[in-house]
Amino acid sequence: MSETAPSRAAGLLHLRRDGLSKGDSIPLPLTMASTFHAPGDSTGFHQYGRFSNPTWDGTEEMLSYLENAPALAFPSGMAAISAAFFALLKTGDRILLPTDGYHTTRILADRFLRAFGVHFDTRPTASFLDGGFDGYRLVFVESPSNPMLDICDIAAAAEAIHKAGGLLIVDNTTMTPFGQRPLDLGADIVVAADTKAPNGHSDVLAGHVASRNADVMAAVKEWRTTSGSIPSPFDAWLLHRGLETLDVRFDRMCTSAELIAPRIKAHPAVKALRFPGLIGDPSHNLASTQMERFGFLISFVLGSEDEAENFINGCELMAAATSFGGVHTSAERRTKRGDAVPPGFVRLAIGCEPAEDLWAAIKASLDRIAAA
User: Fold this and answer.
1) Dist. CA 230–CA 179, nearest whole Å
2) Nearest residue to 116 (alpha-carbon basis) of 97, 98, 89, 78
3) If you ran DSSP here, which 8-state letter would residue 112 be given?
4) What would the mean pLDDT of 284-313 be, rounded to a whole number?
5) Lesser CB count within 10 Å: N end or C end of the chain?
6) For the modification N6-(pyridoxal phosphate)lysine, which residues carry it (predicted)?
7) For helices 305-314 and 355-371, what crossing angle results, to 10°?
8) Helix or strand or coil: residue 210?
9) Cβ-based neighbours of 243, under 8 Å, separated by 6 or more
10) Residue 177 near residue 185, CB atoms below 8 Å
């Protein structure tokens, strides 16, 4: 990048500039239409809402810019993952999934892909490179994993998978393109739930698929058009709005997490803690080279289920909620979602509150746990 070239964040905010005409709106317009004026030849313009929409175009332009690759928007992260699987797999194929990533991905494979004759195996993220990749059409990894925050060496995995003749899909939901660049590390496909930090306001379900492989993107786009797995124009518009402030929000959340994580770890109520930004964490060394930031998720263990619930409910600057990446700090006891974690396991998603105010609220709730 030259000294005068804009940063990714700066360039993102002005993507529409070159296409503006006199009198155009600066923000992306919201086009609510299921059908478009379509006389004559039926190519080269918008025709029907399942095929395309001008608001999608603007949102996908932003996603493509961030990924430095073509991107397609979907109505949720699981819709994006489903599109990649169903567009690229056929009966008899075998895939590899993490044992410790987002559990709904494994449910999709077990309940639906298996019924179509697609076989799958699982392997822990921390030892994902063990065992080889022969025979796998697709290998799917989530790094850092949700909720344990283990890390897979994406570059090493990509090299080994490609030698075995497979494709690597990376779920980059926990990091966003500002925190990690899987395609630059050798991954073939990126999927993400833009419901999380990219939107950032907990009011949209969205996802995307990105790849530099033209055949992959053509297959995924055909699946989206045929299946109707499309985002609504309003959701695409809200996501576009959220992406404009992603850099600012992500930076604040990550910086706050780096401040708060070691303090939580040192608290007497806490039995164990995982955060890639801590020296000594099993993920730290690889995270330091593979990721641009350490993220905003902190996972830790309290003494019991009751302590976890009391901590979350007793913190005045924390929402008891699933999901993560919004401006509001939230936390969840993940055993109630089926994750194989200890009863007192808490996944804490740092939000945009001032860091010292947030820490004071977290400490007060932990102090009550320790004193009980």
Assistant:
1) 26
2) 89
3) I
4) 97
5) N
6) 196
7) 140
8) strand
9) 12, 59, 62, 63, 66, 198, 199
10) no
CA distances from 304 to 272, 307, 341, 344, 372 (A): 12, 5, 12, 4, 12
Residue 228 pLDDT more than 60? yes
> CA of 270: how far to CAs of 164, 304, 366, in Å?
43, 11, 8
**H-helix or E-strand spanning residue 138:** strand 138-142
Q: Quick one: tokens of 198? A: 């990219």
Amino acid present at 335: T
pLDDT of residue 45: 86
How do residues 19-48 score in pLDDT, each as one tens digit?
889 999 999 999 999 999 988 887 778 999
Task: Tell whether pTM > 0.90.
Answer: yes
**Token output for 115:** 């019924």
DSSP tag of 63: H
Starting from the edge strand earliest in sequence, which strands make up the sheet with 189-193, in order?
A: 71-74, 207-211, 189-193, 167-171, 138-142, 94-98, 119-123
Contact 91, 131 (CB under 8 A): no
DSSP structural state of residue 48: B
Indicate left, alpha or beta for 321 from its phi (over 0: left) and psi (-120 to 50: alpha). beta
Burial class (CB in 10 A: 0-12, 13-18, 19+), 198: buried
